[in-house]
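Issue: ligand-bound run for FE2/S2 (inorganic) cluster - logging full I/O for the record.

Environment: standard queue, default settings, no custom constraints.

Inputs:
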Amino acid sequence: MAWITKNAGTMQIDRREEPYLSDETRAKLEAEVIPRYATRQAATLPVLHEIQHQHNWIPYQALEEAAEFLGLSAGEVIDCATFYEEFFLHPKGRHLVQMCQSLSCELCGHEPILEKIQQKLDIMPGETTDDDRVTLMTVECLGSCGTAPALMIDGTLHENVTWEQAKRLLDDLA
Amino acid sequence: MALAEPVLLKRIPPPPWGNVADRKLVTYSDYVATGGYESLKKSLEMPPGELVDLVKASELRGRGGAGFSAGLKWSFLPAPDGERRYLAVNADESEPGTFKDRLLIDFDPHLLIEGIAICCHACQLDTAYIYIRGEYHHQARVLEASLTEAYDNRIFGPNSQLGQINGRDVHCYVHRGAGAYICGEETGLLESLEGKRGWPRIKPPFPAVAGLFQRPTVINNVETLADLPDILSRGVDWFRSIGRASTLGENVPGSYGPKLYGVSGHVNIPGVYEEELGVPMSQLIEKHCGGMRNGKKYKAAVPGGISMGVLGTDQYDAELDFDIGRRYNVLGLGTAGVIVMDEDTDMVAVTRNIARFFSHESCGQCTPCREGSGWVYQMLCRIEQGDGKYKDLDLLDEIARSMGAMPGTTICGLADGTNWAVRTILEKFRDEFESRCTASLVQVGVPSSA
Ligand SMILES: Cc1cc2nc3c(=O)[nH]c(=O)nc-3n(C[C@H](O)[C@H](O)[C@H](O)COP(=O)(O)O)c2cc1C
Ligand code: SF4
Ligand code: FES
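Outputs:
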C-alpha cells in the first residue's frame, strides 16, 4: 500500500563506517547510469536497485548516501523509495518467495498452495523465517496469468505451479 | 477480413511455450534474416510528417488500454525546437489478466525495438526509455541484450541509421520499475522515470506538450509500437482490411488491425492468441483455447484486464473490439487480457479479489480512490463471509459509482477500474450477492410485558 507512510520520528539508525555505495559502484553508476538522464534525480530507481542488488535490502544509511550521490535531500529519496513495493527498507531473508494472488491465479487455485507454503515455512505473507532464510510475500499479478498459478523465487518465475513443485523449490533454498 | 496468418506472432511458436529459459529468442540476425529492420529503412526514406500521416491513416489505436489513435497522439507534438524530445515505451504491464507484451519481449524483442526506432524518426524523438515493470527480471535482461545488438548494428547510438535527431545521437534505454501498478498510467510512469513516486499528474498539460522533464513526450504501449513495422511493410490498406469499422456510427473510430488476446482462467489451453479485432469471445475460447476446462459451462469473463468490468453469462459471443464498452456495458476492451470463469465461480469472491487489487494499488492521492477502494474491499469481505446486509449492496454501488476520472472525482483512471468492476459484477450477478446478505433488523417497538 504505497500511500502508508512509515514512522521516522523515533527511529534508530544503524550506522557503519564502510559506505554502502562504494567508490567502485559510484564510478560505475556515474559512467553508465547518470548520462542516460536529463537530471540526476531520474537515476534514483536504478541507484536503489543497485544498492538492493548488492546488499539484499536498502538500509537507511544507504538511502542517505544515495541522496548525497544524487544531489537530493534524504527526504526526496525516502519519499520515492517508500512508494515502491519492491524496495525493501527492512532486512529480508536470503531468499524471496512471491506468490501471485490476483484473479487468474486465484481462479486457478493459488490458495491451497499458498496455505501449504505458509505451513511449511511456518510464517505468514510479509514475514521472514527465524533463521533469516526465506521471506514470503503475496503479490499482485506477475504477468503470467496464462500459466497460473505463478510463483516467483528470487526473481525467477515458476509457472503452472503445483504444491509438489513448490515444495521442491523451497527445499532447494539454502 | 479474417487474419490469414500471424502478424505480431509470426516469429513466435504456438503455446505451450515451456520454461522461460528454454524459449528460443529471435536474435538480431534471425530477425534480419526474416525481413526485420526493412521497415525501418523504408521509414527513413520518408519525411517524418508523412510517416505520422500514414500511421494516422492506418487508424492504429493504442493497445495499452485506452485505445486512443496513435497517429493523432503523435500529431499533438509541437514542432521540434532543437531541445530533447522523448519516447516512453510502456512495458509496465501489471493489469491482472495481461501478459501479451511479455510474450513479445520473451521471444521477439527486435519487433519492439524496430517499432521504437520508427516512432523516434516519425516523431523526431532523440531518447527512448523502455519502462519495464520490476517483476520482469528476465525480460529486462532480454531487452538489455537485444539493445546491445541493436547498438552494435547501428540502429541507435553514434553514426546510427537514424542519424542525429534534434542534433543528438538517438538512444534507447531500459528503465526498471519497482513494483507499482500505477506506474503503468502514463503520467505516473513519467513521474517514476523522473525518480519520484509514481503519482499521476493532473492533465493538462498533456505529455505531448510537457511530459518527461517537462519536454514533449510520446507514450505508447509495447504492442502499439510492435504494430508499426508491419504497417510500414504491408501498407495502410492491408492494416485496415483486418478488423472492422465501428458499428456505432460513421464518426466513431473503427477497430482495425491484428490484436493479441491473452486468455487465462478456466479454459483448456490458456495463452496469447492473435486475431483480428472484433473476434467474438466464444470463438477465441472454442477455436484457440480448446473450450472450457473440465467440460464446465461458461459463466462470466473479464474482457480486457480487471479494470474493465465483466461480461455476463449471456454475453459469451461479445465481439472483442473497441466498441465493446458501449455494446456490452463494460468499460472497454482494455488490454484484451480475457479472464474466463466457469459456472462454479463465486462472483462475490471475484469482486473481492478485484477490489483488493485496486485498494492495494491506489497511489493515495485522491480520497475517493484511496478510501473508497478500501471500504469497498472491506464490505465485500464482509459479504463474502455472510455478514452483509441488503442495504450494503446499494451502498457498494453508490461508492463505486462515485469514484473515477469519468465521474470526475479522481486524477487518473485507476479508480474507474474499481468503479466498473464492482458495479458491473453487482449488476450482472446481483442475486449471488443477495443470497449472501440478510435484512438489517430494525427494532420498531419495546416489548410490552416486563
Ligand atoms: C491505472 C492505469 C494503469 C495502466 N497501466 C498500463 C500498462 O501497464 N501498460 C500500458 O501500456 N498502458 C497502461 N495504461 C494506459 C496508459 O495510461 C496509456 O494510455 C498507454 O500506455 C498509452 O499507450 P497506447 O496509446 O499505445 O495504448 C494504464 C492506465 C491506467 C489508468
Ligand atoms: S485515482 Fe487513485 S491511483 Fe489515480 S491518482 Fe487518484 S488516488 Fe492515485
Ligand atoms: S493473475 Fe497471477 S500472474 Fe496474472
